[in-house]
Amino acid sequence: MRPKLVVGNWKMNGSQVANANLLAGIMAGMNGSGVSCAVCVPAPYLAQAQAMLAGSLVAWGAQDVSARQAGAFTGEISADMLAEFACRYVICGHSERRAYHCESSELVAKKAVAVLNAGMTPIICVGETLAQHEAGEALPVVTAQLGAALALIDPALLTRILISYEPVWAIGTGKTATPAMAQAVHAQLRAQVAAKNAVAAEDMQILYGGSMKPDNARQLMAQPDIDGGLIGGAALKAEDFLGIIHAHV
Ligand code: 13P
């Protein structure tokens, strides 16, 4: 069985004081649950995360990255810079980046490649909007989103990526996909990876994101193809985040 992984996406939240309390609370509650966990923090707090979490059971990472390597790209942060802070994970193509920053699936694919080249693990996010969901288009939408990444990434490197299925209508809304609904999408995503690299597909952790909370995490993570969660709101309180980490079956 694949090990579970719970990743917090702090989004644009935090302060040095709040982060210190949150990270201390998470570390104190980890007590060898057997589930791996990580926090993806805003870039200015990577040094703080590294200083506090090094040697702990909690890994850390970033929420976005530039597809470019270096140079005159004001405001951008390169994968090599993130690697300097020993990030393990970098979220690529979160739906908020796709919606508010016009990121295409092709750009997301380039970002994932940049992350791989810098020795870190991209968490490639896919998910359909409410309108697409209601039109019954979830599967073709996520297939196209993942397809763009699979077209660019060397199949041999698929052992080093993660995917997160985050239905946009479930993010921050309190609505979750039913476990069966999410399972169906996860199974489809895994099959899509398997067509390129069967071994990578079998081992790949595919996370679910979208209003995952301590009280629904167990049911979601009990599904055979749901290997953990990408957590927004509930990652901002140690008690809730730990509740999800400890909810695994
Ligand atoms: P919520 O858990 O707040 O719904 O956010 C999910 C998410 O977007 C994680 O990346």
Core attributes:
249 residues; alpha/beta; TIM Barrel; 2 domains; 11 helices; binds 1,3-dihydroxyacetonephosphate
CATH topology of the largest domain: TIM Barrel
Query: Rough shape?
Result: globular
Distance between the termini: 11 Å
In the predicted model, the low-confidence regions spanning at least 5 consecutive residues are: none
Strand order of the largest sheet: 1-2-3-4-5-6-7-8
In angstroms, what is the radius of gyration?
17 Å
Give the number of helices. 11
List the secondary-structure elements in sequence, H or E. EHEHEHEHHEHHEHHEHEH
CATH homology group of the largest domain: Aldolase class I
Tell me the fraction of residues in β-strands, as a range. Answer: 5-15%
Roughly what percent helix?
40-55%
Find the count of extended strands (DSSP E, 2+ residues): 8
